[in-house]
Amino acid sequence: MPRPYARAAAALLIVAAVLGIALVPSVAPTHSALPASGVRTAASGVDFLNVSVSDQLAFTTNIGEVQPGDSVHVTVTQLGTIPHTFTLSPTAGYTFPTTDTASDLTAYFSSHAPIVNIQVGATTGAKFYANFTAPAVGVYEYVCTEPGHFPSMSGLLGSGEAPGSLSTANGPGAPVYIISGTIVGLVILALVLGFVVGKRRGAAEEMPPERLGYPEPTPAPTQPPKAP
Ligand SMILES: [Cu+2]
Fold first, then answer.
1. Cα of 41 to ligand 1 centre, how many Å?
2. Distance 98 CA to ligand 1 centre (A)
3. What is the distance in A from the centroid of ligand 1 to the CA of 145?
4. How far is the CA of 57 from the centre of ligand 1 (A)?
5. pTM exceeds 0.85 for this model
6. What is the CATH number of domain 50-169?
7. pLDDT, tens digit, for every residue of 41-97?
8. Spacing, Cα 21 to ligand 1 middle (Å)
9. Could you state, in order of their start, the residue ranges of all structural domains in the chain?
10. Mind spelling out the 3-state secondary structure of the chain?
């Protein structure tokens, strides 16, 4: 294989390996009847929203945006031992005042039925599931209604629009940005390393033998000497 191709192939292999590692989902869904995990593709109309909670009062999610009408499969994984809820508000563009107490939230949801309301039990490693149809275009807030957990435990899900600047530090999308930033960084590093290594190797191979301090080897005979 000519050297430039070998170098390009090596760089591609590195990139493929990096992407392969980065795309492994942090929370693997266990729906047996559903397709393999993945972030939504435009044509699929199916989203896997993976949420994890722990004893830190925060939600971690894999995606921040779905599309109206999509079938959304939610998996909430309990990584700690404190009960939580994943309660998605039905009201587009509305975020709860950060002074709201758990009973304020509960009162609101008694007159505005949440899109989804998952009770997350205390067993470490347990997974909780729900499905819903993504609502009309807008940004929707999800909260935990356990006493004292709001406003720390809240985040935004966009339907047909990005949560954008409304997103909080713990809001949806942040892990996705971190992962894509890491991928881009590693790809650039792999390309630069591949180029530098290829260049140095090329220099050594093209160096004339006398410059390397040993005489040019006598060419081997192309045919064995014929027997008399
Ligand atoms: Cu909570």
1. 30
2. 15
3. 7
4. 6
5. no
6. 2.60.40.420
7. 555 688 899 999 999 999 999 988 999 999 999 999 999 999 999 999 999 999 999
8. 30
9. 50-169
10. CCHHHHHHHHHHHHHHHHHHHHCCCCCCCCCCCCCCCCCCCCCCCEEEEEEEECCCCCEEECCCEECCCCEEEEEEEECCCCCEEEEECCCCCCCCCCCCCHHHHHHHHHHCCCCEEEEECCCCCCEEEEEEECCCCEEEEEECCCCCCCCCCEEEEEECCCCHHHCCCCCCCHHHHHHHHHHHHHHHHHHHHHHHHHHHHHHHHHCCHHHHCCCCCCCCCCCCCCCC
